[in-house]
């Protein structure tokens, strides 16, 4: 598969006007698109498109931009592993709105914003807007800490309900998530990172056994530790563990607890190319992994082996 072809045009001056346009093409564009884009599997998405103005440590952005939530991003070269974590896959990808950030020095950063919500470009005035905030702290050149959160009215019918903003049968409730990303470069070869989050969706239906009937507050949380080891200038090894607790089944469609382990070996023959070989094992406390063609019984685990080739102009 040609998973994704990306074209990014950016201007990021330290003072004055700037902006970015990021265009995606390929199967991945149909996964991380924002409503109402790419609903018919068009294999194209405008991932980001915003204008910005920066002055004296403050930056204003208006348009569509990547989320503040999580350690992983849409662009595969910027992640340590090939496959994405449950936290990334089941979190927001982008937001459309306005974002204001301020850095009083090279250690601290603050961001606030208002937008249309999780992966939504327009709600046609149906749902109220969402708010976002972030604090970043970089005590040393080798360490980084960030805390980010979003809160606002979102569709509460469930991830796999097929209900979109503006639908007549859409149910809305406040969705909130708080996330922290901590990273440290232990030395020139070893880096570690932890991504952890807790989230709630009000006015939802819980799929948990024994849950009361009617509307509930669905909850989910996850912890994802990472380790990246540079064996040499051309070789590196990335490890990732995951624990995702979807106790009410709101994000995965099944009330379950997921665990996963990923090993990625990467080879960089040049600065513009990278080849990754990966093995990943996922396990659930229930039989939630379905056969793609429905020819086998559901299992409580799955095993993946994959290779990826990346080329950067």
Helices, strands, pairings?
Blueprint: E1 5-11, E2 16-25, E3 44-55, E4 58-66, H1 86-89, E5 94-102, E6 108-115, E7 130-137, E8 143-155, E9 172-185, E10 190-204, E11 216-230, E12 235-246, E13 256-270, E14 273-284, E15 301-311
Antiparallel strand pairs: 1-2, 2-3, 3-4, 4-5, 5-6, 6-7, 7-8, 8-9, 9-10, 10-11, 11-12, 12-13, 13-14, 14-15
Explain what this protein looks like in three dimensions.
The longest helix is centred in the first third of the chain and has 4 residues, at about 85-90. The protein has one helix at about 85-90, and strands at about 5-10, 15-25, 45-55, 60-65, 95-100, 110-115, 130-135, 145-155, 170-185, 190-205, 215-230, 235-245, 255-270, 275-285, 300-310. Strands 1-2-3-4-5-6-7-8-9-10-11-12-13-14-15 form a 15-stranded antiparallel sheet, with no helix packed on it. The protein is globular and about 55 Å long. About 35% of the residues are buried. Helix content is about 0%, strand content about 55%. The protein is mainly beta and about 325 residues long. The chain is built from one helix and 15 strands, in the order ββββαβββββββββββ.
Share of helical residues: under 10%
Which residue ranges are poorly predicted, with pLDDT under 50 across at least 5 consecutive positions? Answer: none
The largest sheet is: 15 strands, antiparallel
Instruction: Give average pLDDT, whole number.
Output: 93
Strand order in the largest sheet: 1-2-3-4-5-6-7-8-9-10-11-12-13-14-15
Query: What is the alpha-carbon Rg in Å?
Result: 20 Å
Number of strands: 15
First-last Cα distance: 19 Å
Structural class: mainly beta
Which series of helices and strands comes N to C? EEEEHEEEEEEEEEEE
Shape: globular
- Quote the beta fraction: over 45%
Tally of helical segments: 1
């Amino acid at each position: 598969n040609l998973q994704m072809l990306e074209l990014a045009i950016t201007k990021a001056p330290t003072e004055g006007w700037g902006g970015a346009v990021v265009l995606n093409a390929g199967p991945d564009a149909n996964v991380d698109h924002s409503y109402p884009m790419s609903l018919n599997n068009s294999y194209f998405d405008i991932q980001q498109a915003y204008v910005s103005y920066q002055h004296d440590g403050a930056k204003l952005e208006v348009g569509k931009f990547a989320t503040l939530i999580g350690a992983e991003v849409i662009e595969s070269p910027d992640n340590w592993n090939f496959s994405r974590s449950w936290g990334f896959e089941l979190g927001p990808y982008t937001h459309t709105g306005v974002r204001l950030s301020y850095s009083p020095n090279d250690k601290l950063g603050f961001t606030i914003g208002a937008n249309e919500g999780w992966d939504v470009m327009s709600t046609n005035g149906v749902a109220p807007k969402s708010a976002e905030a972030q604090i970043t702290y970089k005590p040393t050149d080798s360490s980084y800490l960030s805390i980010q959160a979003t809160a606002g009215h979102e569709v509460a019918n469930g991830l796999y309900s097929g209900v979109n903003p503006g639908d007549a049968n859409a149910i809305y409730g406040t969705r909130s998530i708080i996330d922290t990303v901590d990273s440290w470069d232990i030395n020139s070869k070893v880096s570690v990172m932890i991504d952890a989050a807790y989230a709630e969706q009000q006015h939802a239906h819980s799929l948990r056994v024994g849950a009361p009937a009617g509307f509930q507050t669905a909850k989910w949380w996850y912890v994802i530790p990472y380790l990246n080891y540079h064996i040499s200038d051309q070789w590196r090894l990335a490890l990732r563990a995951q624990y995702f607790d979807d106790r009410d089944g709101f994000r995965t469609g099944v009330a379950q607890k997921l665990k996963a382990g990923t090993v990625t070996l990467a080879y960089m023959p040049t600065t513009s190319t990278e080849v990754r070989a990966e093995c990943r094992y996922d396990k659930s406390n229930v039989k939630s992994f379905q056969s793609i063609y429905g020819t086998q019984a559901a299992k409580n685990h799955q095993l993946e082996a994959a290779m990826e080739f990346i080329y950067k102009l």
